[in-house]
Amino acid sequence: MEVLGPQHERFDEILTPEALAFLTLLHDAFAGRRHERLAERMRTRSDIDNGRDLRFLESTRAIREDPTWRVAGAGPRLHDRRVEITGPTDRKMTINALNSGAKVWLADQEDATSPTWFNVVNGQLSLRDAIRRQIDFTSAEGKNYALRPDEETPTIVMRPRGWHLAEKHLRYIDRTGQASPASGSLVDFGLYFFHNAAELIARGRGPYFYLAKTENHLEARLWDDVFTLAEGELGIEHGTIRATVLIETITAAFEMEEILYELRDHCAGLNAGRWDYIFSIIKNFRGRGATFTLPDRSKVTMTVPFMRAYTELLVATCHRRGAHAIGGMSAFIPNRRDAEATTRALDAVAADKRREAGDGFDGTWVAHPDLVATAQAEFDAVLGERPNQLDRQRPDVRVTAADLTDVRSLDAAVTDAGVAANVSIALRYLESWLRGVGAAAIDGLMEDAATAEISRSQLWQWIRQGIVTAEGTRVTREHVSGLLDAALAEHQAAASAAGGSGSSTDGSRWAEAAQVVREVTLSDDFPTFLTIPAYTQFLIEPEARGPRSSDSAAVQRAASAEELVGAEAAA
Known about the structure:
By secondary structure, this protein is an alpha/beta fold. It has helices at about 10-15, 15-50, 60-65, 90-100, 115-130, 185-200, 215-235, 250-255, 255-260, 275-285, 305-320, 340-360, 370-385, 400-405, 415-435, 450-465, 475-495, 510-520, 530-540, 550-555, 560-570, and strands spanning about 1-5, 85, 105-110, 135-140, 145, 155-160, 165-175, 180-185, 210, 240-245, 265-270, 325-330, 365, 440, 445. Helix 5 runs parallel beside helix 6 (about 185-200). GO terms for molecular function: malate synthase activity. Its EC number is 2.3.3.9.
């Protein structure tokens, strides 16, 4: 494993020869299978494009119908998950999350982290220091941040990047001498596990993970094999690792039981990742016509029939197998200068969490420390002193394949405001992401990459379907391009009025963000993840940038992240 990225202070504490050797071991064992799984994603998407409807697998019926098996369940300090706070792993956010009063911190190296080389390694340093209680932070204004006592801090559950993402600042050399970028998943998991597993166990906790963007049970099997090898290599008892899988793709929703089964020795639960789930529906069914065209994002709530079917099935499946069911994100940011707006936000959070607790979820997500108490109050009202409600079975739940994909049940329209909001949100989030900030406050919400994904995918779909808004505006390339030009000019003018230039010379990235949004919404091809072209064009350090990485035209032509990964593997 070769390090191509620049060295910063203390990076040598993470990128040790022993840790790099461990990453090489993981890649030797699993790089080939990773590419096989990514190729299978493309085949599945092609089948759906060609008219195949999703169904529960006949080949795994015996697993679903066998009532005897259970997952491993919660590890030490993971039984009570009633409120989980999510956020990136920079030092300030690490301390704030660990002081939040939540039961769990989802330490996010995925959607809430912009994967600059500095963020990737510095996040590992923050986690390493926090686990050993050696972390503090002083802001530019002189404010000091330090940890609460250990017994008051949440259990850490780390989320590595998904299988589709590469880490181009590390080059993997296989046994034949072929070079390719490292896997972001294996890098994030491997560095965290190598440096912290033994320390976490000694402190009465454990190495716990959230698994993102899983699309089927074979990808879960791959993760389980990674865990087994990693445990054996470091002399850690099999089954010590615990994983919670985000069910945030439509294909995974049809394989929840199989995913639990494949990970049963290491599994703690499933999570309802709502925004990526909606994005996945658009991505997979984008070629199937108006039947799968969704209205304004604000209208796709968790109470619409097809989303309700998804969450009900998740709770029933988890509790039947002894796994936690964790609810979705509340991304509201309380405004301490606007008491009325804060009251409205807290009321909305309370209603959302009351529904989840009443449905049988064992816990939920929030994005801001000020929401922890509100969310906890709703779960306390249902759970009382119990750590969870695994004993609440849901035999009343009957969900069919048609229920999960019945987008037509949502009777709502696309509006002019919805189109403009998607343009604005995609542009503002990408600008933040390109500056290295992966969790961005936008219109009173803490947004991550999932928000930009659903915004740009809806724009792409509406253009291709020739959607006419409720006000009579046809959504065309020209219309969206005009909205993007206007939004770009507005933000650049605001930056100029504030004394900057609105360009990269003052640190802002508006022009580059607009370029990416234009590429992923107006082109004929549909990049499977917008972060792939954005990363490849703008986040790779010069030391790691080769001819393929700098070929922007090739990036623009790529129809999917998996195609890019496959091309890199063949390079």
